[in-house]
Amino acid sequence: MMSEAVSTKTGQPSAAGVVKISVFTLAIMNVAAVVSLRGLPAEAEYGLGSIFYYLFAAVFFLIPVSLVAAELASALPQKGGVFRWVGEAFGTRIGFLAIWLLWIESTIWFPTVLTFAAVSLAFIGPDQTWDKALSANKLYVLVTCLVIYWGATLVNLRGVSAGAKLSKYGALIGTIIPGGIIILFGMLWLAMGNPIQMPIRETDLIPDLTNLNNLVLASSIFLFYAGMEMNAVHVKEIDDPSRNYPKAIFLSSIITVALFVLGTLAIGFIIPQSEINLTQSLLVSYFDYFDAFGLGFLAPIMAVALAIGVLAGVSTWIGGPSRGLLSVGHAGYLPPFMQKVNKNGVQVNILLIQGAIVTILVLLFVILPSVQAAYQILSQLTIMLYLIMYMLMFAAAIYLRLRSPNLKRPYNVPGGTIGMFIIGGVGLAGALLAYGLSFLPPAQIAVGSPAAWVGLLLLGNVVFVAMPFIIYAMRKPNWKMETDDDALEPFTWQHTGSKAADTA
After folding, report:
1. What is the Cα–Cα distance from 428 to 387, expressed in whole angstroms?
2. What confidence tens digit (pLDDT) does each residue in 98-112 have?
3. What are the backbone dihedrals phi and psi of residue 483, each rounded to the nearest 5 degrees, phi first?
4. Whole-model pTM over 0.85
């Protein structure tokens, strides 16, 4: 942070001595934190109906998450993030569950995004038929995923700064530029009167909501929008946050929805619905557009660019949530073994445990009937664990409004307490709905036995939710090893003696 703050309006140092960021800057930061291209084919399955799902998830999830997280971050800016927010409401046991879920869902997410990277690399060859066959080969996907993941882990073990440039330029090369390119191609394809593979009928704008199985892939849109809470910590760095923060949220929401909608339609324009593949279709779309416009030589370059973008994202997420878990662990919530850091100050054993879990999950590609099935079940489990964390966050925000109405909140959800009940309640209901839908096997993908599908999801939920409670129950006084750099301040209820304090 700069030593002298500058006003975004005047270019002069601000009176508060804090660097102020503009509405547009915060909006772009939010877009960068949320937008990923790899899930677009899943929604292209729905044709024009995908627009409904994107808007539904934005209203019932994206905007509520952004506004509620901003209030929590401004009221409880201490270290700990979601651990602090949920812990203030329901005690440290549930707070630990929340931060654990944030870490474990990102761990389970790795195989799905790594699969996308493996598919991207498969398409650097000159023969698209051979490329498609390679990308569907289980052994190829398995080996490539593990090589990329452990390579990114080794980079993170060298220290926080090691992957900084990769994250910065990788996002630009692998997400922003490719996203703009496919949208441009889609618009040109439409403007030139080329045949459209996606049916264009007004009746398709409202999808068939009677078939619940068809909603499973749509529920994944909630995960598309996940991550907006990360930038809630900047709520106090914007001028007049009560007025300008909602502006930044709505601007970033419009940009995010536009990128997702237009990118999804661009895929649907050129690939028939019956031929859409969750792991291949984004690459195939680029290849088909490049061939159509006489730019086929650029296709391998795009494949490499998308893989670089994934590598950058993986590198960032390997170090991020695990670092937050380490900080909470130093306060006495993880055994000393998991608090070990190397000479670079990196949480080495947490990263090794995380890597072991990723390796085991990647092996699911060998067990399930297809790469698509493995991809989808891991995506659904990721969504479900993340949604539990979000439900805890929404419930905590609503409860704190009732229990601690006088808590200083530099930013308030519009509408005060009533606004929190409405916005937080909408977010909680939306997350609960998406969680329930995630148990249903998708009709578009062969997943083998529906009972096995539901059983695997239930087992995953039970195991990963139970683990933090077991660790919490086993904690000992000598586990507390926090330093001045990562000390967690006492909770508000620890000062007041509130009954919200944990009794364990």
Report:
1. 9
2. 989 988 888 888 887
3. -110, 175
4. no
